[in-house]
Amino acid sequence: MKLLDQPMKQQMEECKRKAREAGLNFTDNTLEYIVTNRDMLELSPRDMIPTLYDYWLQDIQVLRNKWLYEAFPHNPYETVINTRPPISFYNQDNADWFNVMIFYHVLGHIDFDQNNIFFRRTWDDDFCGQALADKRLVNSIREQLGLEKRWVDYVIEFTKAIDNLVGYHAELQDIDRRDAPEIFGILSEKINFYLGPFLKERQETKVTEPQFYRDEIERYNRCVEQRGKIQAESAFFEDNDFRSKFPEFNDVFRKWKEKNRGPKPKDLIEYLIKHSEFLNREKNKWMIEVIQVIRRTSLYFQPQIRTKIANEGWASLWHERLFLPDPRIETHETDYSVLNSGVLSTPRLGINPYAAGKHLFEFIEHLATKGRLSPEYKHLQDSELRKRYDKNLGQDYGRNALFEARKYLDDYLLVNFLSDEDFQDFVDKYKLFVVGMRPSREERDVVEFYIKSKDGRYYRKLLNDELYHPPNIEIDEQKSTDGDLYLNHIYEGRTLIARYIHSVLIGLEFFWGKRVSLETTEYEEIQPKDWWDRTAKRTYLKARVLYTCQGRSVIRTYLDITPATVYDDD
After folding, report:
1. Which terminus in the chain has less CB density within 10 A, N or C?
2. DSSP 3
3. H/E segment holding residue 472
4. Helical H runs in 324-440?
């Protein structure tokens, strides 16, 4: 692995200049390395972070990658990581003209990483430096444990089993509340408690009516208007009517503060760190340090995971727009066309995130240029009027909308940004469709693929089904009796992967030190009477089940079962 030579670095600087002229915005300093295929195979298990902590599974993945490479030689072209400064890796087998195209692609990634708000938690971080410090910490713990150092890998493995549950959005919310409290209308802890848990409990017990809550908000706003923000709180709570109605408030608030001292955990990992008696024993506190390393690493990668379509689409859009007019493409037009068509092809089965993201950004720019992002256009029902609608707002207006989309959209928001009518136009423009699968009526053991639908709603569902969607797991403190940990999986249309539940619960029981329970939703197939009919629909039972782990033994019990429902496999 070595840095770019001087001539190629000059080419990169020229690409930066042209990218900035086109509107991309990124820092001046970047690092570029030339690597071999073997280097790529060894870096990929570390998520391309050379300084990432050591873990036994990385060595297994390196061996696996080498075996795969020997059986199926392949040539990864590039990768870029969002550090300060950004670091990108280029394969030594790339031709010079090809590297120029990749420079534009990488600059698209860097622009996205440094301007998309879902990356804002990483904007001020040198993650390579942080990863190196974490690696040294983990290695020093291994040295201290001596012959027991294998437990470090156990802790890493148990934590990585739940690191997709990190409170990514809660972390972003904290940043926003800290940086712009006036936008979020931050209230004091006392006011928040009164207008939140206190009045909610009294409304549930019928002590107050819903209208009373609205009246109290208006009363607080009047106090702010009359006394100002500093004196409003004291005036609000010194009101005689309030004192007579809730004489117990101060005692309840004091007890609540004692119970909820310190910041509330943002996710399951933080909850374990704060509340696990086992982890907080003096001899086990090294585990907390290792767990925090895994959590920091997971939070760093969360925006990359959640913007695969948007990030790759944005980079693909700009490598095409910037490289086509670049003089360095001369005599390589055919090579570029062949390579680019492979990168941006739309598959018949599944999706290509490069193509999907690029086309969605282009379509949003197209709509903005014609003024079709306006409420006036949204309310049009006549299909002919929609086709002819064109306010001709110009390329600059469309370009501004394009960069706004880059700033505020992740994969989910990008896929669901367009209305149903506009998304149908998008599907029609790019001739997209959903493919179905069915047994052949002519040949046994043969499957046929067919165009199932060209409806935009179904194609959007196909895209949504491909998005990253970690489970929503809540800690139910009311059911966590006798020191147990009770987890509630909020069912959102996707079940947990059952084969992983046992091992994850065993790891959680180790961290918690006592019994752990998980409530979740599962489907069980019922054998149809006409089982020989391969075209028959399958019937399932939807069940709410409880997994309980104690002494590394996991027991599964039913909580309730809903009536059988018919489910079409197509």
Report:
1. C
2. E
3. strand 472-475
4. 333-343, 353-369, 375-378, 383-388, 395-408, 411-415, 420-429
Residue pLDDT, tens place only, 59-70: 888 888 888 777
| Structure confidence at residue 554 (pLDDT) | 95
Contact indicator for 322, 329 with CB cutoff of 8 Å: no
Question: In the numeric block, which tokens belong to residue 250?
Answer: 């101060």
| Contact of 367 with 373, CB cutoff 8 Å | yes
- Asked if the structure places residue 122 within a domain, the reply is no
| Cα–Cα dist 219/502, whole Å | 52
CA gap 110, 26 in Å, rounded: 7
Q: Choose the most confident range, by mean pLDDT, from 5-9, 123-127, 241-245, 561-565.
A: 5-9
H or E stretch including 30?
A: none
Classify residue 559: in a domain, yes or no: yes
Same domain, 155 and 208: no
- Is the pLDDT score of 446 beyond 90? no
**Average pLDDT of the chain to the nearest whole number:** 89
Distances 531 to 226, 456, 528 between C-alpha atoms, Å: 75, 34, 5
> Are 152 and 46 in a shared domain?
no
Do residues 222 and 284 share a domain? no
pLDDT in tens, 386-400: 889 999 999 999 999
26-30, 130-134, 179-183 — which is least confidently predicted?
179-183
Structure tokens at 138: 């983990």
The pLDDT score that the predictor gives to residue 532 is: 53
Shared-domain flag, residues 322 and 241: no
Are residues 375 and 494 both part of a single domain?
A: no
Determine contact, residues 507/158, Cβ cutoff 8 Å: yes
Q: Give me the number of domains the chain comprises.
A: 5
Distances (CA, A) of 344 to 337, 359, 538: 10, 10, 37
Q: What pLDDT, on a 0 to 100 scale, did the predictor assign at position 185?
A: 57
Give the angle subtended at the CA of 206 by the CAs of 204 and 207, to the nearest 5°: 110
- Domain range for 140 is 130-167+266-302
Same domain? For 274 and 358 the reply is no
Q: What pLDDT is recorded for position 37?
A: 84
Looking up residue 563, the CATH number of its domain turns out to be 3.30.565
C-alpha dihedral sign at 127, 133, 134, 139: positive
Are residue 414 and residue 517 in the same domain, yes or no?
no
